Amino acid sequence: MARTLLRRRKKALSADDVMVSDRPKVRRAVTAAALGNTMEWFDFGVYAYLAGTIGKVFFPSSSPGAQVVATFATFAAAFLVRPLGGLVFGPLGDRIGRQKVLAVTMIMMAASTFAVGLLPSYASIGFAAPLLLLVCRLVQGFSTGGEYAGATTYIAEYAPDQRRGFLGSWLDFGTFVGYSLGSGLVTVLTLTLGSDGLESWGWRIPFFIAGPLGLIGLYMRLKLEETPAFQAETASAAAERGEGAEDGDDDPIEQARQSGKGRLKEIFTHHWQALLICMGLVLLYNVTNYMVTSYLPTFMTATLGESDTTAQLLVLGTMLLVALAITVVGRSSDRWGRRPMFMGGSIALIALAIPAFLLIREGGILLPAFGCAILGLLLVCFAGTAAATLPALFPTRLRYGALSIAYNISVSLFGGTTPLLASFLVDKTGNTLVPAFYLMVAGVIGLVSTFFLHETAGRPLRGSGPMVETDDEAREIVARSRTEAGRHARDVWLRLWHPRGGRNESTKARKRGD
To answer: Collapsing DSSP states into helix, strand and coil, what is residue 19?
Structure first.
């Protein structure tokens, strides 16, 4: 009797506690989630590469430097509303499901990006043109507030524990493929149409392509099912509510806890440490990301005087390098852990940011290419690891909401404003190494955040049971769990009834393999 009670103190897993992933469903989930990211970053690549042209179209009365700042200010405005989108879509995704919210964000992103291509220029309608551009960017920002966090949550909850880093890295693979497609298209248009043709009408073409991409992504997302983790959480919550409502009256405390406000309160009061760690890691990733993808093309042309084609090809090559390396980094994080990847990348960023920008400053092709490659390899350390690391910080019932809030606040305050602040500081100080100093500060913050990060590689998500690929793995985990529970109960038994010699006896028993 006593031994039975002791065994219950560490309950062994049953077959129902271990989920076996469905490979075709996992592939569909990864593809659909990555496609949304591809479309989002297609827009970012287009906007970053067309910053000078958009400035001339929508802010023609300003100086060239002011045009760039105004264009990036409109770019940054979208990030200011991202936390609002996170506050709306995140808790909603925890209540009604990840798949439904991701379908809505896809529609909003595609429609607002397509609308930019339809906008009349400043020459046609005056001051209303930049205002309409701002409205489109705000809609994009609001929808994006629920996109990345939802996509990472979706993939993380479908992925087996031992492959979460590799499968999650495909989400950010979509990011850099989208950016490369957008920037590559602008490069081709620049070479074929010239500056005049691009400014006259050619700048609209990339935004029109977002419409068909959005329809394809929407179709794929509507075909998806809910994640196993969310379904299990929903079933468990429904069972608890059913037991509490047998007498016909729901518990008002539980109702408040399940509401949107109740979830937000729980996130900020019980998970504030995870929020801060998440924000620090997101800052590290996104400051590096936007410095390379959004600011670097303009830095090389407007500040260093390089040709548009040279700058575009250098950054495009960097993005292709990141895309090629990102799944390798994701797989490595499954083997070596998330903390070593983030910590090593943070230290390298602090040490190599200045040398990278010194090389970029040299001009020409070869040395700037080495500088861009250094920044790309630093970026991939974070990009290949983030999608598996961030969702694991929060429990299932709050994961979408908590990740949306932390991610979007950090991106809005630090990531999306990076091009604007960097261009402003370089313009005011005249110091072309300011972007490197900015990256070094991000590296320090990322290093501190990683120090408090718990390793999650190969482990189940918080609030969920183990996720494996095969039935044999599931049986092995259940058997191992029963063995460990039995050993734990035996150790407690020996220590309880033989306090002096119990420790030695339990050690001997483990050595014998009993």
So the answer is: strand
